[in-house]
């Protein structure tokens, strides 16, 4: 009997050790995955910044020159026939539309306000931009004492707010939305809420991607990169509120 008890104890000890080893392997795998996601995200942001600058310095400037030349030609050449003048005005309008689109793309990739003026200015630009093309009335609120945030924290919070507003525009059928930037003593919080149609939440946040909520899943991944949390509140007919808290 004693021998059996010793055997059981040895087996239990071996099983416990195996469980500890598996748990440690999982922890290392999660750390490696988190590091990989962090590096990929950083590389993506650097590439976004590079493309945005190239669009601004090269493509946008060339389109500005072309637009001015077409405008000057259409309004200044007295020998043009009415048909050719109308054609030039049409080309000028098309060029101007392309210019506005490229400017928006450049700002969307990396808003200049974020690098020059900080998170609040970038959020105000974002709200104005989305309101312009969506027709949604968007308000920006600030709570607490404003303070300087690390560049990476600002970028993560901006990208989450950007994706949240995209979801509002694409899916919510909302007429109003709010962005609230809140500074606590040791945390920074962003809340994006709308008065749209809402939706049924999955049982767990881990089910977001499985349920097709890829935008929300991406926001959660970004928050977790900085040890932050993302929560979503929503019900059909009662709008949606996305809250992100970053320890910064």
Automatic annotation (TrEMBL):
Class in the EC hierarchy, top level: transferase
Matching Gene3D superfamilies: 1.20.5.1930, Histidine kinase-like ATPase, C-terminal domain
Catalytic activity as recorded in UniProt: ATP + protein L-histidine = ADP + protein N-phospho-L-histidine
Protein name stated in the entry: histidine kinase
Keyword Nucleotide-binding included in the entry's annotation: yes
Gene Ontology MF terms in the entry: ATP binding; phosphorelay sensor kinase activity; protein dimerization activity
Ranges in a coiled coil: none
The keyword ATP-binding is assigned to this record: yes
Listed EC numbers: 2.7.13.3
Record domain Histidine kinase: where: 50-248
GO cellular component, one term: membrane
Key words, A-Z: ATP-binding, Kinase, Nucleotide-binding, Phosphoprotein, Transferase
């Amino acid at each position: 009997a004693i021998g059996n008890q010793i055997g059981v104890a040895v087996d239990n000890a071996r099983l416990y050790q195996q469980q500890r080893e598996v748990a440690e392997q999982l922890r290392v795998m999660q750390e490696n995955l988190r590091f990989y996601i962090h590096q990929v995200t950083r590389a993506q942001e650097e590439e976004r910044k590079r493309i945005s600058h190239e669009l601004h310095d090269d493509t946008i400037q060339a389109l500005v020159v072309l637009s001015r030349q077409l405008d000057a030609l259409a309004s200044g050449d007295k020998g043009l026939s009415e048909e050719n003048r109308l054609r030039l005005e049409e080309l000028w309008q098309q060029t101007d539309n392309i210019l506005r689109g490229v400017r928006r793309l450049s700002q969307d990739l990396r808003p200049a306000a974020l690098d020059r003026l900080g998170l609040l200015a970038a959020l105000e630009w974002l709200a104005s931009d989305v309101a312009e093309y969506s027709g949604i009335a968007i308000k920006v609120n600030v709570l607490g004492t404003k303070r300087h945030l690390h560049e990476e924290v600002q970028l993560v919070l901006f990208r989450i707010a950007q994706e949240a507003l995209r979801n509002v525009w694409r899916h919510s059928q909302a007429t109003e939305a709010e962005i609230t930037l809140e500074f606590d003593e040791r945390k920074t919080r962003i809340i994006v809420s709308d008065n749209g149609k809402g939706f049924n939440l999955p049982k767990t946040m881990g089910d977001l991607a499985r349920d097709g909520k890829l935008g929300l899943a991406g926001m959660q991944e970004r928050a977790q990169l900085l040890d932050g949390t993302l929560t979503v509140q929503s019900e059909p007919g009662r709008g949606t509120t996305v809250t992100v808290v970053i320890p910064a």
